[in-house]
Amino acid sequence: MTSDKTPTVKAARRRDTYRWSARGFIAPSVLLVAVLLYLPLLWTTFLSFTDYNGLGDPEWIGLENYAEMFDDPQFMGSVLNTLLWVGGTLLIPVGIGLGVALLTWNLKGGIWLRLPFLIPYALSGIGVAVIWSFILGSDGALDQALGAFGIADTPRWLVDSPLNTVVMIIAIAWQGVGVNALLFTIGLQSIPKEPLEAAKLDGATGLRLFRSILWPMLRPLTAVVVGLSIVASLKTFDIVQGMTKGGPGRSSETLALTMYKETFVNSEYGLGSAIAVFLTVVTLAAAILYLRQQLSSKHEG
User: Which one of 65, 173, 270, 282 is most buried, counting C-beta atoms within 10 A?
Assistant: First the structure.
């Protein structure tokens, strides 16, 4: 009896030793994530219920920051601008990226046609803002080019709202089309040849081939691309700060820029933290709802 139990006891001890060794290796990473992610999140959430200007001790005021936030028409303007960013970045860079990938997919030398779209992706958001501010600024490159053709009455690209938000979306699309095209090209190249050849034998070409074969097989990758675009657009900050600083007035502010200004410009740390919490909740909710919708449609399919 004892001899039968001995191997089992030794195996159990080895498993326990392995588990504790694994936990020891994982512990530094868990601690790092806790210190750099969870503790700041908890501190920000606490500050959102306080009146705090960065000096002294925070004063607990409950939900007053959230009430002030939703009563502020400028905040609601930031929400609308952020939603415009979400819609614009889904339609333009994702849509054009898919188009570029489809047009250059099986084309000889297609990689060289995609290269010009990829180069802007190497720039930072501030770099893109500087380039497009030079193009769209008052008496900038675009106005001068139009003036050369006799068109003197041009819009104030970065002043008139919502035109300023629209042209900034175009600027960020210029940067993002290339990487989306690259991702979609990878997805197209991973599609097996057999269903494509069978569809072509059945006479499927062009739009019918895309709708029946290519699009269903690209859906998993499209879910990733769209999900990343939604999250990135909700957090838009650098290009708006670089091109308009949220102006004129606060007409082109996004939620991320409003959070920055309330916190670090106006020293309203409590209100800024409330906006940060709201933005975090919206981003998580959008990501979760989108992923659930994708998973449910996949199971139904």
Answer: 65
